[in-house]
Amino acid sequence: MTKPPVFDDPAEERAYLKRRLTAAVRLFGHYGFDEGISGHLSVRDPEHHDRFWVNPFGVAFNRIRVSDLICVDTEGRVVHGHLPVNPSAFVIHSAIHTQRPEAHAAAHAHTLNSRALTALKLGLAPVDQESTAFWNDHVLCDDYEGPTVDPEQGKAVADALGDKRAILLRYHGLITVGATIDEAAFWFISFDRCAQVQLLARAAGQLVPMSDEQAASARAGFGDPNLAWYSFQVLYDHIVNLQPDFLDE
Known about the structure:
By secondary structure, this protein is α+β, with helices and mostly antiparallel strands. It is built from 7 helices and 8 strands, in the order αββββαβαβαββααα.
């Protein structure tokens, strides 16, 4: 299976990551994950590891371009770019990137399916193959103290996430992380669709989850980070074909 490319030049890698990040944001818009000013995706800078690139405050997912991306430091200062940072984006992503060195990317949005699932105080059950990617690898955070704009709130989210690949925030939405922005974004898209399956099935009747043995067997394939990365390449090609303007730098 194809794996993420390796770069010798940080500038070349940065350009690649910014294109991938922008594609992920456009895909979030394509899938209807937008909710006004809410939602943000980030990827760690390949050279300055204490900084991350993120979509800016006040630009719709469906309008974001590579040239719109901003780079933010540990103090929340925009060190590259001309647009402001979303306060929630800074406190959430800076905490996750600080506490999870291996998590080079994170994705967050207030999707209908994730909000509906948390309104029921439910996590994701292994009711199909795709959902096993998150079996024993996500948490439901029940704490809520209003919009996440304080650094201590961001740290609490990162603490609750721990070493998992996804966290459902009650009354709030979903966050996923990955070693690449491709992985983090695909996990998010897949999780949200799995949440929809669970909600539809629960509305129609009683859920019948897999056994632990079945879930473990399915997770060995569907939970593979390389599969997530590769799956995103299909989505990347799709959004490039649909909306090539996002590549404008």
